[in-house]
């Protein structure tokens, strides 16, 4: 079976499902537009500051949103839900961020931090893919910001075969498990806290 994975904004995921161009979407669940969709919560992700030159921020173990706003940041573009969540956090802190680079790719964020004197704010789940190697460090932001992540699909009974294969026949093979089963699991749990466990999937 051939499967195609796309990186899309929340709006594009919802539209793709409604237009039957997509079978399944992975997105933030705290969105009123998801009413009427079938939802499978997976995990909660916490936002952290991704830094390479920690000496410039005095090797901090955590940081406030006000302090992070004064750093040169690379963030996702404003049409992305991730960016809107981060922008809202800075607004609550009454601290306009210093955004010097924008991109629509999470891996581009990682590359810019790795190769430039900039910082980024990313979900901790990114660490399960790229880790904290190459001198990069993830610093928790305070007050903590976290959001529920899960899979969504159209309400169909029975489920389309590809969706059923992913969620019903093999419920333990889900994206939420990748973070906790990775080689950096111990470090990740120290970073986000032992209470951050994958949310159970309701089938």
Structure description:
30% of the residues lie in helices and 26% in strands. The chain is an alpha/beta fold and 203 residues long. The chain has 2 domains: 10-44 and 147-186, 3-Layer(aba) Sandwich (D-Maltodextrin-Binding Protein, domain 2); 46-142, 3-Layer(aba) Sandwich (D-Maltodextrin-Binding Protein, domain 2). Strands 1, 2, 3, 4, 5, 6, 7 and 8 form an 8-stranded mixed beta sheet that branches. The longest helix is centred in the middle third of the chain and has 12 residues, at 81-92. The two termini are 22 Å apart.
What is the architecture of the largest domain at the second tier of CATH?
Answer: 3-Layer(aba) Sandwich
User: Looking at CATH, which topology of the largest domain would you report?
Assistant: D-Maltodextrin-Binding Protein, domain 2
Strand content of the residues, in percent?
25-35%
N-C termini distance: 22 Å
Shape type: elongated
Order of SSEs, N→C?
HEEEHEHEHEHEEHHH
Number of distinct helices? 8
Characteristic key phrases:
eight-stranded mixed β-sheet, 2 domains, single chain, alpha/beta, 30% helix, D-Maltodextrin-Binding Protein, domain 2, 203 residues
What would a concise description of this structure say?
With 203 residues, the chain is an alpha/beta fold. It is built from 8 helices and 8 strands, in the order H-E-E-E-H-E-H-E-H-E-H-E-E-H-H-H.
Helix-strand blueprint:
Layout: H1 10-18, E1 25-28, E2 37-51, E3 63-64, H2 65-68, E4 72-76, H3 81-92, E5 98-103, H4 106-115, E6 119-123, H5 127-130, E7 137-142, E8 146-154, H6 161-167, H7 175-180, H8 185-192
Parallel strand pairs: 3-7, 4-5, 4-6
Antiparallel strand pairs: 1-8, 2-6, 2-7, 2-8
């Amino acid at each position: 079976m051939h499967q195609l994975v796309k990186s899309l904004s929340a709006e594009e995921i919802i539209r793709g499902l409604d237009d039957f161009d997509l079978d399944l979407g992975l997105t933030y669940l705290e969105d009123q537009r998801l009413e009427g969709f079938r939802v499978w919560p997976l995990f909660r992700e916490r936002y952290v500051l991704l830094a390479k030159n920690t000496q410039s921020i005095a090797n901090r173990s955590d940081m406030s949103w006000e302090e992070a706003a004064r750093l040169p940041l690379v963030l996702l573009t404003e049409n992305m839900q991730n960016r809107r969540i981060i922008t809202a956090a800075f607004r609550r802190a009454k601290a306009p961020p210093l955004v010097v680079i924008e991109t629509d790719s999470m891996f581009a964020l990682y590359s810019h931090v790795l190769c430039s004197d900039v910082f980024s704010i990313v979900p901790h789940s990114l660490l399960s893919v790229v880790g904290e190697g190459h001198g990069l460090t993830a610093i928790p932001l305070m007050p903590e910001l976290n959001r529920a992540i899960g899979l969504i699909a159209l309400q169909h009974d029975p489920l389309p075969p590809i969706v059923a294969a992913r969620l019903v026949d093999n419920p333990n093979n889900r994206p939420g498990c990748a973070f906790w089963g990775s080689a950096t699991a111990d470090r990740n749990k120290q970073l986000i806290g032992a209470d951050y466990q994958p949310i159970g999937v309701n089938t």
